[in-house]
Amino acid sequence: MKITGVELRRIAMPLVSPFRTSFGTETTRDVLLVRVVTPDAEGWAECVAMSEPRYSPEYVDGAAEVIRRFLLPALPVNVDAYGVGHALEPIKGHRMAKAALETAVLDAQLRASGESFGRFLGATRDRVPCGVSVGIMETIPQLLSVVEGYLDEGYVRIKLKIEPGHDIEPVRAVRERFGDDVLLQVDANAAYTLADVQHLSRLDDFGLLLIEQPLANDDLVQHAQLAKRLRTPICLDESIESAAHAAAAISLGSCSIVNIKPGRVGGYLEARRIHDLCRAHGIAVWCGGMLETGLGRAANVALAALPGFTLPGDTSGSRRYFATDVTAPFELEGGHLAVPTGPGLGVEPLPDVLEEVTTSTEWITV
After folding, report:
1. Is 275 exposed, middle or buried, given 0-12, 13-18 or 19+ CB atoms closer than 10 A?
2. What pLDDT, in 10s, does the model give residues 286-320?
3. CATH code for residues 119-338
4. What is d(CA 212, CA 134) in angstroms, rounded to the nearest whole number?
5. How far is CA 340 from CA 79, 109, 110, in A?
């Protein structure tokens, strides 16, 4: 497949409410969209890097620069999605930027052949159960009101962001208010250390599905030590950047669950490799979210339909984050989202909305 040009488009997407985690608060998503154009089709992708390097070393300006200066020049004249990963392998890191470029190429490839993302990846379901991620709230009553609203909408799992000083009491309040039948988990975003083990063990009383990334992303050994001292299952997120990282975590006993975020691991092909590895070793996986627009959400929903994704992911409906999405909105139905069946991502950007939210565009002839 010959790429004739690539568009880098920046859009600003206001969030319906501020989203606070242990590493910061977001009110607007500064998103880099990548459009790959070929003689037969064009493909879209969304880079999940944030405005600042707080969740990961990558950030939006840097992702655009590395795509422009290093990734695009590294591609051969004719390439498919598998060839993208091989061509970019000599360039270290920058997985989110690589994922965006690979995904856009894959979308164009699948649109040209008439195959859907789900079918290509190996999806076995036509809809996926949806959880929702709840940011850190100012007060317990506010948190309870927000959780109640999401449960009323039909979300089948609640994830609470936590940090030191905002952990035990919010979890207790949600559990006491909504009962033991609610699927509940917490996400620490690497906010704790092994010195907090006694404190974290207090979470064992609440029957949580998991605690996500309690320690630093490079602490596989200490996560393994923590796993031995908690009844609550450990799930790794930021620690897993590739199938090799997942294999190391499994070997060490660092986790029993993995959150697969395609952007974090370098793309959907690597995400599928991690899924296959974890499934072979009896490790549960679920699909994480990065406040994606409908373009990123479409690909995530397709991935979450693979057989090893046995836990509800952060594949929320569009209105969880955006008043108006850049694609037709994903609507929750019975706690599930439908897997798109059209060619490629199965969704298209809405031209009027895209124009309204665009802050800059750059066309690069390849």
Report:
1. buried
2. 999 999 999 999 999 999 999 999 999 999 999 99
3. 3.20.20.120
4. 13
5. 25, 16, 13
Task: Report whether 147 contacts 332 (CB < 8 A).
Answer: no
Q: Which of 2, 92, 159, 261 is catalytic?
A: 261
Question: How many CB atoms sit inside 10 A of residue 61's CB?
Answer: 15
Strand stretches in 245-325, DSSP E: 257-260, 284-287
Please check the confidence at residue 77 and state whether its pLDDT lies above 90. Answer: no
Out of 2, 92, 159, 161, the active site residue is 161
- Among this protein's residues, is 161 annotated catalytic? yes
> What pLDDT is recorded for position 23?
73
Count helices and strands in the chain by DSSP H and E runs: 14, 13
- What Å distances lie between residue 112 and 39, 118, 211, CA to CA? 9, 15, 41
Contact 234, 254 (CB under 8 A): yes
Q: In 122-242, which ranges are continuous DSSP H helix? A: 140-153, 168-178, 197-201, 220-229
Alpha helices in 67-167, H assignment, sequence order:
72-74, 81-88, 95-113, 117-121, 140-153
Q: Where are the domains of the chain?
A: 5-113+351-365, 119-338
CATH number for region 5-113+351-365: 3.30.390.10
Q: Which of 169, 154, 165 is nearest to 192 (CA)?
A: 165
Band (277; pLDDT cuts 50, 70, 90): very high
Which amino acid type is present at position 23? F
User: How far apart are alpha carbons 81 and 114 in whole angstroms?
Assistant: 15
Q: Strand 5-21's sheet: what is its strand order?
A: 42-47, 24-37, 5-21, 358-365
172, 175, 178, 179 alpha-carbon torsion, rounded to 10°: -140
